[in-house]
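Translate structure to sequence.
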């Protein structure tokens, strides 16, 4: 599934085969357990999204919540998008170091970590990175990047 038309996260998860739902649900649990207060889980761009609601930060270029993270089941892999690592080079390095320390191969685009099975991720480190940036700090990073 590359993109879903599901209106809710539960609908999205029900669309997946059991084995793929189990992997995505496990990563989702790590995200939710570590997500700082102030972010909200929604469906966004056909995947599970975590962002700052528009009522908290309405000044976005696309009139969508400010995206912090996302999780998707793509056709041949899963994807975890971490905007905090994309916007902050220290967070990106922490992510790279975590994969190296765990002896895991990092398959990463700009903000997208691609993985094929749950064991491909250092979940405790992913949780720490998710927990590391409260909404106020993320907004400040976003605004600083837009000012450049």
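Result:
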């Amino acid at each position: 599934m590359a993109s879903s038309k599901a209106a809710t996260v539960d609908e999205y998860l029900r669309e997946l085969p059991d084995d793929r739902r189990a992997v995505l649900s496990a990563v989702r649990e790590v995200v939710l357990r570590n997500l700082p207060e102030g972010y909200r889980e929604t469906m966004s761009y056909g995947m599970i999204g975590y962002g700052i609601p528009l009522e908290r930060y309405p000044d976005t270029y696309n009139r969508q919540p400010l995206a912090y993270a996302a999780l998707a089941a793509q056709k041949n892999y899963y994807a975890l998008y971490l905007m905090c690592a994309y916007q902050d080079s220290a967070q990106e390095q922490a992510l790279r170091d975590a994969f190296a320390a765990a002896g895991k191969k990092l398959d990463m685009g700009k903000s997208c970590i691609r993985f094929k099975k749950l064991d491909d991720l250092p979940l405790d480190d992913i949780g720490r990175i998710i927990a590391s940036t409260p909404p106020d700090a993320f907004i400040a990073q976003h605004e600083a990047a837009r000012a450049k």
